[in-house]
Design goal:
The protein is α/β, with parallel strands linked by helices and 474 residues long. It has 16 helices and 16 strands. The chain folds into two domains: 4-230 and 446-457, Rossmann fold; 234-441, Glycogen Phosphorylase B (Rossmann fold). The protein has helices at 25-36, 73-92, 103-120, 140-145, 164-167, 173-178, 191-205, 233-239, 243-256, 274-287, 310-329, 346-355, 370-377, 410-422, 425-441, 444-457, and strands spanning 4-10, 40-49, 57-61, 64-72, 129-133, 152-156, 185-188, 208-209, 214-217, 220-226, 260-265, 295-300, 337-340, 358-361, 386-390, 403-405. It starts with a strand and ends in a 17-residue tail after the last helix.
């Protein structure tokens, strides 16, 4: 096997050892694999340029090379803010009511994938393994094949795959899915998302699915499988001994003034179910007056995708909702909810997780949700907190000892909060030990290793059809 080549929308450039603590677990795992194979990571720099030139910006550190390109303003508007985040993201998270279908979005999405392929293909060597990531780059494998690449190419989707009845609302949905048939391996987080993909292939494309997950459509065979992503558990455990983590722990613990602490950590996104979570917490306060003044809820929700107008409405809704909850229940010496619109580095979050008695992780739909696993990894083995987890997060398929709830039901959320706060220490330890066993066993290194090994073994012997790609939206 040659190098591992990673292609994603954005690139996490290697950092000096002194800054590794700020790097996410996914980036650490991919960078480690790239380092082992003297690999390359390609994607958008995050910068804008007046005219796309295809100029590649190379950076090398620790045996890893990153290669990035700048995009035009129109590219960012149509490809990233448009088709990726205003069409695919809401639709794949079951929010067809928020999905926007605009032909310019589709043309921009196709154009950027073509530009990535044209810029990147000359850098590929014959025995390289290529790993494409996420919904921004669904048709990239097809674009690479049209430029003559015969390499093994894998694709991993980090968000849910929607049911067939929802996906058919996407204009030219068959063209998008057919572009995936040029991959040799397609991976999803869970068996649920995998089954949804299989159902679409069978119903819409007339394909067949073999027991090992191989799909066949009109002579093309592609291996598919579930590869649940994890976190770097050992790194989270090390982080807890660092000064920033200890300071964050002490700060939250001290500010709670002896009260129980509930924590939520999410990007400001409609898929995270934050309004439903706030209403569930309000129902808990209404039904449990004995807990008034004895519990505090900290919700950390840094803004995201500010250029997509839908997110402005979320922020306005949560500002108003948190204000109403505090107005209804607060006392001079107690505020029931602290709602913070800023992000924190991993060290600080680890300290917050450790100080919290309960974590509310209640997305309406999520590919995996690593906050749930990060919370588990950060707990004190002798006195762990309790994880309340949405049934609709991918993590719920693994973390069965969490308190699983329907996030749409404020009564279920309320009851789970009460149960978590009242839970005896022995039960908390029993549940946590089962949870942390899974988090350690199926960590991010396991995820990366199993996918790369499956890609290396994937059948790459069949012919690939050539020809121009069809537009995704006309």
């Amino acid at each position: 096997m040659g190098r591992l080549i990673v292609i994603s929308n954005r690139v996490s450039a290697p950092k000096p050892r002194s800054a590794e603590g700020t790097q996410g677990g996914l980036a650490v795992a991919l960078l480690a694999a790239l380092q082992e194979s003297n690999g390359l990571w390609f994607g958008w720099s995050g910068e804008r340029t007046e005219r796309f030139t295809g100029e590649i910006h190379f950076q090398r550190h620790g045996g890893v090379t990153t290669a990035t390109v700048d995009l035009e303003e129109q590219d960012v508007d149509e490809y990233y803010n448009g088709y990726a985040n205003r069409t695919l993201w809401p639709l794949f998270h079951y929010r067809i009511d928020l999905a926007e279908f605009d032909r310019t979005f589709g043309s921009g999405y196709e154009r950027v994938n073509e530009r990535f392929a044209a810029t990147f293909a000359p850098l590929i060597e014959a025995d390289d393994l290529i790993w494409v990531h996420d919904y921004h780059l669904v048709p990239l494998g097809q674009q690479l094949r049209q430029r003559g690449l015969k390499n093994r190419i894998g694709f991993f989707l980090h968000i849910p795959w929607p049911p067939q009845r929802l996906l058919v609302s996407l204009p030219y949905h068959q063209r998008l899915v057919r572009s995936m048939l040029d991959y040799d391996l397609i991976g999803f987080h869970t068996e649920e998302w995998l089954e949804s993909f299989h159902h679409y292939v069978a119903r819409e494309l007339g394909g067949t699915i073999e027991p090992d997950g191989t799909i066949e459509v009109e002579g093309r065979r592609v291996k598919t499988a579930a590869f649940p992503i994890g976190i770097d558990v050992s790194e989270f455990e090390r982080v807890l001994d660092r000064p920033d983590a200890r300071n964050a722990y002490e700060t939250l613990h001290r500010s709670a003034e002896g009260r129980k602490v509930i924590i939520g950590v999410d990007r400001l996104d409609y898929s995270k179910g934050l309004a439903e979570r706030f209403n569930g917490y309000r129902r808990f306060l209404e039904e449990n007056p004995d807990w008034l003044g004895r519990v505090s809820f900290l919700q950390i929700a840094p803004p995201t995708r500010g250029e997509v107008h839908t997110y402005e409405h979320i922020r306005e809704e949560l500002d108003a909702l948190s204000g109403r909850i505090n107005g209804q229940f607060a006392h001079v010496d107690w505020v029931p909810i602290r709602y913070v619109n800023q992000g924190y580095p991993r060290d600080g979050l680890s300290g917050f997780y450790r100080a919290a008695d309960v974590a509310l992780v209640t997305p309406l739909r999520d590919g995996m949700n690593l906050v749930a696993k990060e919370y588990v990894a950060s707990q004190d083995p002798d006195d762990p907190g309790v994880l309340i987890l949405s049934r609709f997060a991918g993590a719920a398929h693994q973390l069965r000892e969490a308190l699983l709830v329907n996030p749409y039901s404020k009564d279920e959320v309320s009851d789970a909060i009460r149960k978590a706060l009242d839970m005896p220490r022995a039960e908390r330890i029993r549940r946590w030990e089962a949870l942390v066993d899974n988090v350690r066993r199926e960590d991010v290194l396991h995820w990366r290793r199993t996918f790369v090994e499956a890609l290396a073994k994937a059948d790459n012997s069949h012919d690939r059809a050539e020809g121009a790609a069809l537009p995704l939206l006309e």
